[in-house]
User: Which sequence fits this backbone?
């Protein structure tokens, strides 16, 4: 008799959400994870005795988790302390020259404060155009939220059907065939503002010069709310794991999967690296789908998804987690220091396959909030990040390349007024090769497939793979990368599992709910 157990491969956010949704409905779940802890890309590193976030640092779309907690009979505020940010991010530009004052601009959750700040920074006309840009970004988000973000993997025809005749004008206005950079040129004449909002393409691991203009919706998502998670972003993963364990989920850490097993053409469990077999009625794979296509989980699983050309990989990163002393620049929690030539930066990465010679730098000052009086008196925890090519498996960066990029990175911070001092022992550096080791078959790409061109949004795999019983979750699947998107993918995978169980066993026990709320055109529930 076939087991009713379900195996989740990978304890990233998508896998944790899928496990939690299923366990809450009475499904026996085992999660196998090669790392020593949960979180996947939402990982944590120890630096100088401090635990620092080494992955995602921005928490948005809080409603995704509020609805998740509600479905399992919990309240998010009982488990996570979330503090809304008034300052979304502080931005600075490398003006060039040692004696030029740095150019600085804050964006705020309050629209009027941002309008005023942009007016002071770039003039009244740009402030007016920013207001128009915000209205357009909000319209794109409203058009796509239910028929795209909250639903199973759409195609152009099904998306049009979901929005209906009334929604078709909205689909036209999202500008799917324009690039983000081109669309921003319709709104902003100041190149610095075009650069600032073009950076939202990197949230999907993409170049603003090739990404679709629909990514303008990210501006609306951030303005709807950015939260700081007390204790760090990794606290989200730890909380989900705790809720899973309370509902009977078994975690197997430090365990690698050698292959996904098939029986009668259907996924029937996994074989671990040591030869142990875990039989299952279905398998949820919460890893980058490139690992399946490459054969990393056995030859039989290679047909689960189409192979992704290396040229379509998203950005990787070169990061430094530091415990350091800072002075000269009043950091906020989120800070971006822009290079002078944005086009050259992405040409270096995507066309020449090398680290940018003049990188834009993101700095997360993890102990800081919105207020000036939160500046630390001693060393503080930082995550510094520059974009990098996803070639950790094909052309690892040389020590000389890394050293040159490090010099360019911290030299640019210095020119913007930020002086960072740390000891070598107080730094953990992560390269694309390190990310490849953590997330095999990706080359270090952190977001799955790059969102280049209008087709990219429709070519990400959905919850169902080509192999019955093998479901998919995570940032490389629909609806895309990022913490809330990965969570939605986990819910979609759980929904797919439960739908299969209903088909296999039409008569269910009254004590177990066999379905999750599913989004339909015009509906109000999250999958």
Assistant:
């Amino acid at each position: 008799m076939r087991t009713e157990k379900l195996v989740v491969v990978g304890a990233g956010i998508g896998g944790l959400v899928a496990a939690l949704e299923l366990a809450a409905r009475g499904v026996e779940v085992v999660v196998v994870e090669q790392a020593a802890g949960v979180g996947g890309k939402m990982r944590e590193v120890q630096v100088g005795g401090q635990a620092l976030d080494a992955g995602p640092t921005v928490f948005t779309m809080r409603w995704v988790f509020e609805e998740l907690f509600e479905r399992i009979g919990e309240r998010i505020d009982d488990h996570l302390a979330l503090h809304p940010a008034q300052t979304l991010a502080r931005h600075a530009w490398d003006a060039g020259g040692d004696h030029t004052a740095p150019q600085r601009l804050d964006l705020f959750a309050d629209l009027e404060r941002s309008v005023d700040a942009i007016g002071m920074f770039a003039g009244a006309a740009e402030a007016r155009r920013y207001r128009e840009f915000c209205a357009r970004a909000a319209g794109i988000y409203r058009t796509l939220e239910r028929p795209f973000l909250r639903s199973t993997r759409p195609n152009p025809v099904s998306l049009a059907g979901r929005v209906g005749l009334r929604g078709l004008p909205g689909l036209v206005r999202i500008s799917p065939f324009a690039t983000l950079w081109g669309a921003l040129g319709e709104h902003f004449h100041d190149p610095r503002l075009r650069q600032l909002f073009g950076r939202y393409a990197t949230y999907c691991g993409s170049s603003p010069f090739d990404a679709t203009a629909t990514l303008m919706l990210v501006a609306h998502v951030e303005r709807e709310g950015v939260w700081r998670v007390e204790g760090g972003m990794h606290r989200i993963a730890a909380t989900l794991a705790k809720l899973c364990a309370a509902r009977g989920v078994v975690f197997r850490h430090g365990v690698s999967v050698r292959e996904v097993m098939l029986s009668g053409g259907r996924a029937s469990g996994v074989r671990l690296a040591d030869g142990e077999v875990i039989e299952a009625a279905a398998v949820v794979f919460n890893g980058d789908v490139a690992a399946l296509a490459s054969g990393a989980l056995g030859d039989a699983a290679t047909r689960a998804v189409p192979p992704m050309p290396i040229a379509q990989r998203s950005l990787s990163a070169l990061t430094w987690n530091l415990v350091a002393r800072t002075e000269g620049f009043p950091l906020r929690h989120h800070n971006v220091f822009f290079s002078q030539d944005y086009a050259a930066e992405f040409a270096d990465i995507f066309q020449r396959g090398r680290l940018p010679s003049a990188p834009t730098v993101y700095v997360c000052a993890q102990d800081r909030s919105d207020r000036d009086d939160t500046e630390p008196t001693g060393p503080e925890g930082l995550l510094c990040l520059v974009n990098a090519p996803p070639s950790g498996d094909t052309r690892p960066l040389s020590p000389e390349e890394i050293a040159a990029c490090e010099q360019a990175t911290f030299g640019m911070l210095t020119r913007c007024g930020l002086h960072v001092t740390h000891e070598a022992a107080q730094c953990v550096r992560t390269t694309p090769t390190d990310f490849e080791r953590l997330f095999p078959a990706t080359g270090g790409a952190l977001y799955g497939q790059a969102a280049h061109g209008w087709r990219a949004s429709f070519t990400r795999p959905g919850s169902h793979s080509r192999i019955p019983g093998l479901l998919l979750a995570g940032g490389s699947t629909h609806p895309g990368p990022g913490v809330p998107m990965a969570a939605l993918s986990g819910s979609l995978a759980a929904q797919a599992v439960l739908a299969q169980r209903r088909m296999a066993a039409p008569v269910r026990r009254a004590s177990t709910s066999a379905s999750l709320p599913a989004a339909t055109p015009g509906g109000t529930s999250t999958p």
